Amino acid sequence: MEVRLSSRPDSGRVIPLPLISHHSASRSSVTCKYRCGNACQHEAPNTSGNAYFGDIVEAVLSRRGALKATGALALTVGGAAMLNGTAAAAPKPAPARGAVPGTDFAPVTPNTEDAVVVADGYQQGVVIRWGDPVVEGAPEFDFANQSAAAQEKQFGYNNDFAELIALDRTGAESLLVCNHEYTTEEHMFLGYDENNPTEEQARIAWAAHGLSVVLVKRQDDGSLKPAPSRYNRRITLNTPFELRGPAAGSDLLKTSVDPTGTTVFGTQNNCAGSLTPWGTILSGEENFNQYFANADSVTNPVAKERLGRYGFEGTASTRKWERFDKRWDLAQEPNEANRFGWIVEIDPNDPSSTPVKHTALGRFKHEGAAVQIADDGRVVAYSGDDERFDYIYKFVSNGKVKQGTSALARRHNMTLLDDGTLYVAKFTGNSPAGEIDGTGKLPADGKFDGIGEWIALASGKESFVPGFTAEEVYVFTRLAADAVGATKMDRPEDIQPNPVNGKVYCALTNNSNRGSEGNAAPDEANPRVGNKHGHVLEIDDDTTGTRFGWNLLLVCGDPNDAGTYFGGFDKSKVSPISCPDNVAFDRHGNLWISTDGNALDSNDGLFAVPVDGPERGFVKQFLTVPNGAETCGPVVRDKLVTVSVQHPGEIDGHNAGNPASHWPDGGTSQPRPSVVAIWREDGGEIGRG
């Protein structure tokens, strides 16, 4: 039995339901339009001819004709149904509960409920929704009468990354920090005219982007409730940010409004993030290209190449913001676009502090960034570039961390990401090219694994890439990484170090173009043609060094498909998983994975999997989210799990006048992106029998 939080307020909590037949639950076109500017409907911007796979690349490419045939065969591996755009029915997970602490729960059955469905024995409740008050003076949410002034004080739209920062040892009070990735105007405004948006609608959207900081208190029943606090804060597209690091003040970052190249208003399309060891939040600016207009008006060939590599194209933007502020018009402010695509850092402990954009970590479509402290006290930050055929990066600081939680220590540690060396990853496999046939079949040694090299791009004012100045490396990092032959990956998204075993885990969501005509062929780090389900990479890094080992922990999809792999675990017992996106860890070191775009005809969800021991690879589904929604920003604590439920009801053919969902408020209400908390009914630890 599972527990469903229905969108009907009178439905009750426990509803036994039969296994539901699956329909396609992959991402809708309206989500793609507003979240990433339809990135997957365009050719990937990485058209470089760099080496894909070390010394074996020629052998792989010589087999491209065979791989095309293999790709057609691979489409039938999971069943002929895949040929007509549907996936094979996902199996119901076996009832085995497992013994690893943190994962001892009965897995949720894949489903298409318009509800949050959690494992038996767990309770759930909404923490905060789009439009709920955050800062003092915020009005109550009124969907039909939104205003920019109200939204500046209310919880933003489409919450993604989330973190809980405890204010005391008990965790009774915490700061909830959330990203607000993007706005979907036709679901926010009744009668929205995408060809003629109003200025007020644009300003509401500017205020709905960014981040929220809000105090939450643990209740006696286990739930979380927001509360007024001096810490509460909204960061929007109107909030000043400081540009710092080696590219700050560059001519490439100067505009008519900011001739110094050191101050930017706002942050946008913030996706994943992390909590630093010193208590601040890192957040990644991702699909920023879609917000800018008139890329086609740029005729300078160098500028046009740079814009093209970041996916800038077309005339008018989707949201038409350029009508109300020239900074969104590349014809008027060509450098404004260069001021987005960074890792930003905010200090939730100081609501008066100015957020920072760190140029030393490079500019690309950051999913996020996460830090670990090396043995010598330096910090290492890992980041993925979420685009088909783009790269994985790391940054190693020159300075060392200052211990303690004082404001002085925090200010020092916030400077560490401004001075160091930026690297990009190159992967080499251990298996002969002939054993990587594009189907996902394991090579003879039983693993997809190998070694890797971190290639230095720049450090401070010194560039290591011929033909690039250091400023150009930082501002046009993708082009610099192309030049040094980095390995093209299948959409590297969230990447986080495991605090228990020290290894680094990266979700590679999918890449339907892998192995297609004119695109990179499969390699051992990206082993499937038309990779629709994604995989999870495990890196054993030398931290501050330039060498690493790697393997694929998961090759995702239907366990009945021969082209899937679950860390060597018995596939008859695992939950099906598709399109991994965000990763997190519990205190036992288990990996928790949220998904985005499930291509197995089930709603997206949250999954737990041990990474060490006899149950390594035993994937178990902990929850699913409502129809049209994506599972984001998992936080896993001993007695609490939270997830961001993003874009519920974002289904083609629906809009604010015809909502596809009434989650979470029920009745005839509009769907609202929200943060949900989950806890055990008996108050015990998550995943402990």
UniProtKB/TrEMBL annotation:
Signal peptide: none annotated. It comes from the Bacteria. Residues 511-532, 648-673 are annotated as: Disordered. InterPro entries: PhoX, TAT_signal. It holds the Pfam family PhoX. This is PhoX family phosphatase.
